[in-house]
Amino acid sequence: MSASKSMFDQLPTYTDRLSDRIPLRTMVASRTGAIDLLYSQSRSPLIKHVISIGDPYQRAALGLFIGRSSVLRLEFLDYPWHRQPHESPFGFPTLDIVQAIVDWGHKVLPRPGIILTHCQAGISRSTAAAFILHTMELGLDNLDLAVERLLWTRPEAWPNYLMIQYADQILGANGSMIKSLDSVFMTDPRINAH
Fold it and tell me: How far apart, in whole angstroms, are the C-alpha atoms of residue 78 and residue 125?
């Protein structure tokens, strides 16, 4: 057995109605968890593609660019709904940011290697990015599966609602991406408070 095969075997596998024991393709982590993964001797060589999301002017996670094929670094605040006219547009999720994730996904999804998405807590912005990638990989006819994979990967996920709205628009989902996450959005205290 080759060294890369044995490292690959260390990754969790996932089983659903479309596949039997597939290796985890997209991982989600907090900033601290991402640093641990990026420096892990067993997992780091397998992580070839990273979406790194931070607050404006926040330094990128250590080890982010070492040995990666493709890195998308984004900086914006975790704001889950449209801003009011009196609020500053600086740092909020935008259609252009989500378009960058979709464009990056089109380039990266056909390539081999594990994809890591991370943000500060690994709960909102990075899970929205992961859900977008799952949706692109599985197609709009399998949104229930995309949600299942997201929650299997990150049970505490509260995807950024605004990012999902923009992705729904970009991918032509006609509201189905948002609807597929209704049960998850209902648990997000930020949205319930709003």
Answer: 6
Element (H, E) at 53: strand 47-54
Q: What angle do CA 176, 16, 172 make, to 5 degrees?
A: 20
* Segments of 56-156 assigned E as strands: 70-75, 114-118
Mean pLDDT of 150-161: 91
How many other C-beta atoms can be found within 10 angstroms of the C-beta atom of residue 166? 23
- SS3 of residue 156 by DSSP: coil
Higher pLDDT, 86 or 141: 141
Contact 47, 116 (CB under 8 A): yes
Spell out the residues 6+ positions from residue 185 whose beta carbon is closer than 8 angstroms to its own. Answer: 158, 159, 161, 178, 191
Contacts of 56 (CB under 8 A, 6+ apart): 75, 76, 77, 90, 91
Q: Is the pLDDT of residue 169 over 70?
A: yes
| SS3 label, residue 65 | coil
Average the pLDDT over each of 131-135, 142-146, 179-183, 188-192 and give the range with the smallest value. 188-192
Of 1-5, 101-105, 151-155, 182-186, the poorest mean pLDDT is in 1-5
Dist CA 194 CA 179 (whole Å): 18
pLDDT band at 159 (very low <50, low <70, confident <90, very high): very high
How far is Cα 85 from Cα 83, in angstroms, rounded to an integer? 7
